[in-house]
Task: structure prediction
Amino acid sequence: MFQYEFMINAFAAAGIVAAVSGMVGFFLVMRGQTFAGHALSHIGFAGATGAGLMGIAPIWGLLGFTLAAGVGMGMLGERISNRDVAIGVVLALALGFGLLFLHYYTSFATQATAILFGNVLAVDRAMIAVLAGLAVLTLAALAVIMRPLVFATLQPELAEAKGVSLRLVSTAFLAIVALAVSECAQIVGVLLVFTLMVGPPAAAQAVTSGLWRGLALSAGLALAEAWLGITLAYYTDWPVSFCIAVLSALTYFVLIATPQRRGRSKVESLAEQQIS
Amino acid sequence: MNVIDLDRATIQVGGRNVLSDISLSIGAGEFVGVLGPNGSGKTTLMRALLGLLQPSGGGVRVFGRPPQRGNPQIGYMPQVRTVLPDLRVRGLDVIASSVNGERWGLPTLAAADRRMIQDTLAAVGALDLAERPMAEMSGGERQRLLLAQSLIGAPRLLLLDEPLISLDASHQEMVIDLVHGFSRERGITVLFSAHELNQLLGFLDRVLYLGRGQAALGTVEEVVTAPVLSRLYGTEIDVVHADGHIFVMSRGHNVERAVHLHEEDHAHSHQHDSGHVSI
Result:
């Protein structure tokens, strides 16, 4: 299948995006903010269709809207950005606007499907360059805030006392999520960003207890699911995003159903072995 | 030099004077129990000492200086201890996150930090907890781990906000023993807030009783008396001594126990509310 250029492009783009999604998503899941990530992607839909209406490439509209919304949520503080109802209302409003923009730009309808469900097979060299640039930016920003982010996530009360600005860290992180969502939407679409940003990290956290191991496994799972998904789509002719979604869900359910032994004391495991 | 000095300090939370016009001094190596009804300002006092709340009047000094966030001389165990239920991060990573956690960059640990964490874990007998996920620990194990965390970096002042909450009696004893031992061994000043006095009797150098914006600091014999507590509770209080225990009663009810039960309920229902403001 690698004799086709569009397949090579698809593997490259999906690889870049999956690694970023798996790593950023790891912290999104850890912080319990997956709904905020979901909302950002829907807000991005309004941005993408709005950009289409103005004749700009959808990714820039996506980026602009998600970044503004992410920073906005962060500035409003933890209490608001974790409120499901407030986020849900804004999310619905954004989808409504997305529909309005579509209504005024009807020829855009085919591209709307691509925005909603992704179209990785249509990715060209220029888009790969954009995605690679964004990926470097996203991961660099994540590396800068990672230390206080982990502290503020695990022990917010103590972090505040030790001089961490919870609001600054939260805002910076949601901006990073906005970047990752915009990239992820290019591959699997705004409706399916969970498949790469939530499924792999949640599965990874179910079977690891070390921070770095979890992060690596999350990125690895996302990468494997994205590449396998494309391969599966190539041989079955099913949509790529569907294949990735299935693999993501399967991996998640298999791993959370796996009984946990790691991390327990040796005495306990020994006792269990003797019993069984 | 005193470790803590309050000079006619008034501290407000949400426009209300939680502590008003309080003056007191606590010296190096003192083990002080902080008691008082709900909302009497135990957490507020600690937050002021940490520099998270500014006094609206008077002066607060810690080690002779106005408090500043991130003072490495202070070890702190907050009352609201967020534990994300689904998170399987191991104990080591949780407490390692607090070591220089305010700095930017990747959360890597220097060899010296690693050794410091190991030593502190060993000192509280929590080495076996390092590899286990926090969410799977019992209350006592979690407390031991967080206690170790508050001791990392050899602080000179420990602020422990309700470290006994939701622990059974044997674990409460273990925590008190550990803290008392450290305080004596290393000359660390400890503020230890609690709802019940009795477990702490015999360990405390002095007790700081808070109530209705006021404070009384002194030995147990000086402070835990009917006149002083009646003033702090704003109602008639009897202090009953029985069998080496002290019971603080109001109209025949044990005040501390009622408060304690209520507080446990509270702690459970608000466990995940990170925006929770305690007083």
Notes: The longest helix of chain A spans residues 125-154. Chain A touches chain B at residues 30, 32, 77-79, 82, 143-148, 150-152, 154-164, 205-206, 208-211, 214, 260, 263-265 (CB under 8 Å). Residues 5-197 of chain A form one domain. The radius of gyration of chain A is 19 Å.
